[in-house]
Specification:
The complex is a heterodimer.
Chain A lengths: L1 H9 L4 E5 L2 H7 L3 E4 L14 H17 L4 E4 L18
Parallel strand pairs in A: 1-2, 2-3
Chain B lengths: L2 H17 L1 H10 L21 E6 L3 E3 L17 E4 L7 E3 L7 H5 L7 H9 L5 E2 L2 E4 L7 H21 L3 E5 L2
Parallel strand pairs in B: 1-5, 1-6, 1-7
Antiparallel strand pairs in B: 2-4, 3-6
Helix pairs in contact in B: 1-2
Classes of the chains: A alpha/beta, B alpha/beta.
Chain lengths: 92, 173
């Protein structure tokens, strides 16, 4: 996936991704990635958990403006042990 | 080794990785991926409320009416499928034998958050969605890597250039 992200960014479109395998992401070096130590198949969390899904989207959008090239940000959410609340601040 | 045996081993490994994520992380530590020396970079130029977004996943999602990804090739499938922004849960399915996608099959938003970005657009927080979104199946090996770089990615970039998103958001399986 990192190859695809790098090609899109190189073509002039800002990209941000979710990473589930940090070591692979560190080698491929996409422009911006959020790392989640979560099970495969759940990059935005659990089905129908809107607060969780919006939290990851909010963090991704915020990171688009804040990241430096090649930065990987470790998100602090532990799978299922975190209580998600609906993000309210979207003005970026 | 014949293809069917290789394929069975790949599927078993993938199931093990899903069951025990630590195996996936160990594999990723020792995988022979070359480290890139550069990082491509395009700064984001607009406020979020003016940005149009394109979503991409490598989770094997596709329209039920579209051709499924090829799971018989041990080197994977480098092609992609277009998912229109108006796609609904009932329109979509997942063809991917290498991870447990039961949850994503119930709510595709955990892979491709189309409904969530539509809700953000309705709320005025996001500028909108491009008409097309894209899905790969993630497993791309052997000769398919060159096909991805030389044929598939140029085709994808052609489509993206026509729709000119301000943000591209990518998720793995």
């Amino acid at each position: 996936m990192g190859l695809i992200q790098r090609a899109i960014e190189a073509a002039g479109f800002p990209t941000v991704s979710v990473s589930i395998l940090r070591d692979v992401t560190e080698k491929v070096r996409p422009p911006r990635a959020l790392f989640l130590r979560w099970p495969f198949g759940h990059p935005l969390g659990e089905p129908y958990n809107l607060a969780q899904q919006f939290t990851i989207l909010r963090d991704a959008f915020e990171f688009l403006y804040a990241a430096s090239p090649g930065e990987i940000r470790d998100l602090p959410y532990s799978w299922r042990r975190h209580t998600y609340s609906m993000p309210t601040e979207w003005k970026l | 080794m014949d293809n069917s045996l290789r394929q069975r081993i790949t599927v078993l490994l993938a199931k093990a990785f899903t069951q025990w994520p630590v195996l996936g992380r160990l594999w990723s530590k020792v995988s022979p991926i070359a480290r890139s020396t550069d990082v491509p970079w395009t700064p984001i130029a607009k406020p979020l409320a003016a940005c149009r977004i394109t979503l991409i996943t490598t989770g094997g999602l596709h329209l039920r009416t579209d051709q499924p990804f090829n799971m018989d090739d041990p080197n994977g499938d480098p092609t992609f499928r277009v998912i229109p922004s108006h796609a609904q849960q009932a329109d979509l399915t997942i063809t991917h034998n290498y991870y447990n996608h039961a949850d994503a099959g119930r709510d595709f938003n955990i892979l491709l958050p189309l409904d969530r970005v539509k809700e953000l657009t309705s709320g005025g927080y996001l500028g909108g969605l491009t008409p097309s979104h894209y899905s790969f199946m993630g497993h791309i090996d052997g000769p398919h890597v060159a096909a991805l770089e030389n044929q598939i990615l140029p085709a994808l970039l052609g489509k993206i250039r026509r729709e000119r998103p301000d943000i591209v958001f990518l998720t793995p399986a």
